[in-house]
C-alpha cells in the first residue's frame, strides 16, 4: 500500500531560491531512492523549519528512507526530527485529486 512520510525539523536556512540552489544535488539524489514516487519540499522561514512530504510505493520503502535520512540529518547536526507515516486511502484521495498513482 502506498505510504506518506511526513518529516520536519528545525532549520535555519537557506530558504526559497537559495535553498533551491543549495539543495538541488540532494533533490536529484532523493528522487533515486527505492520506492519513492514523489517528494514535496516544505519550508517555513518564520518558524525556521523545513522538511518534506513523501509518497512511497510501500511502507517498507518509507521506513528504510526514514532511517537513512534521519541518520543523514543527525550527522549534519540536526536534532528534534519529527516523522510520521500514513497509509494512503487511494479511492478517497483520487476523489479529492490527490497526486497519487
From TrEMBL:
UniProt entry tagged with the keyword Oxidoreductase: yes
Q: Which residues form a coiled coil?
A: none
The domain of life for this entry's organism is Bacteria
* Keyword Signal among record annotations: no
Q: Which GO molecular-function terms appear in the entry?
A: monooxygenase activity
Entry-linked SUPFAM superfamilies: Dimeric alpha+beta barrel (SSF54909)
Which keywords label this protein?
Monooxygenase, Oxidoreductase
**PANTHER family, sorted:** MONOOXYGENASE YDHR-RELATED (PTHR39169:SF1), PTHR39169
> What is the protein name given in its UniProt record?
Monooxygenase
Q: Which organism is it from?
A: Denitrificimonas caeni
What lineage is this protein's organism placed in? Bacteria, Pseudomonadati, Pseudomonadota, Gammaproteobacteria, Pseudomonadales
Amino acid at each position: 500500500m502506498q505510504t506518506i512520510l511526513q518529516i520536519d525539523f528545525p532549520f535555519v536556512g537557506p530558504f526559497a531560491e537559495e535553498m533551491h540552489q543549495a539543495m538541488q544535488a540532494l533533490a536529484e539524489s532523493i528522487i533515486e531512492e527505492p520506492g519513492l514516487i514523489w517528494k514535496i519540499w516544505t519550508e517555513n522561514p518564520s518558524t525556521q523549519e523545513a522538511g518534506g512530504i513523501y509518497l512511497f510505493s510501500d511502507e517498507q520503502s518509507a521506513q528504510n528512507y526514514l532511517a537513512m535520512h534521519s541518520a543523514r540529518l543527525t550527522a549534519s547536526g540536526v536534532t528534534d526530527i519529527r516523522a510520521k507515516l500514513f497509509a494512503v486511502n487511494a479511492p478517497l484521495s483520487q476523489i479529492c485529486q490527490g497526486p497519487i498513482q
